[in-house]
Amino acid sequence: MWQIARDSQVLDVNSGYAYVLWCRDFADTSVVATDDADRPVGFVTGYRRPDAPATLFVWQVAVDADQRGRGVAGRMLDALLDRLAPLGVTRLETTVSPDNEASIAMFTALARRRGTHITRTELFAPDDFPDSHLAEDLYTIGE
C-alpha cells in the first residue's frame, strides 16, 4: 500500500508503519485489490466515524498507474460499501482538494452508480494545516 501511495505522486504518503497498522486496525473498512498474480494493485482505506457509525470516511484511494482506467477504484468502493451496508453504513464522506478533478469525478460517478446524491462543503482551509497543503473540501455521498 505504501508503495502504491508513493508511486501515485499525488497522495499524501503516510509512513510504512501507518499502513501496516491500518491493515491491522481498519481491515474491515478498507480493501486491497490484487491482479491475477495476487499482486496488490490498488487500495481504499477508510473507517467508520466514531461519532457517526453510519458514515464511512474514506481516507485514501490509490490504484497502480498500469491499472488506471479499468474501473478498479470504483469496484473497490462499491465492494466496500456493499460489505458495510448490513452493518448500517449508509453514507460515505471523503475530502478532496479542489484541484483533484480525477477524484471528484470518481466520487461523483460513485454517487451516480448508487443512485444517490453527492454534496460538497468547505472543510479545511490551507491555513488549517501546519505545512503547505491545499484546501480540503468534504464530499458526502448518501443519506
Task: Summarize, please.
The chain has 143 residues and is an alpha+beta fold.
Question: How would you describe this structure to a colleague?
Answer:
The protein is α+β, with helices and mostly antiparallel strands and 143 residues long. The protein is 30% helix and 32% strand. Helix 3 packs across helix 4. The protein starts with a helix and ends with a strand.
The coarse silhouette is globular
Structural category is alpha+beta
Q: Summarize the amount of helix as a percent range.
A: 25-40%
Q: How can the largest sheet be summarized?
A: 6 strands, mixed
Discrete helix count = 4
Distance linking N and C termini = 30 Å
Tell me the total number of β-strands. 6
List its salient traits.
32% strand, alpha+beta, globular, 6 strands, 30% helix, 6-stranded mixed sheet, 143 residues
Task: Give me the secondary-structure topology.
Blueprint: H1 2-8, H2 16-25, E1 31-34, E2 40-49, E3 52-63, H3 72-84, E4 91-96, H4 101-113, E5 118-124, E6 136-142
Helix pairs in contact: 3-4
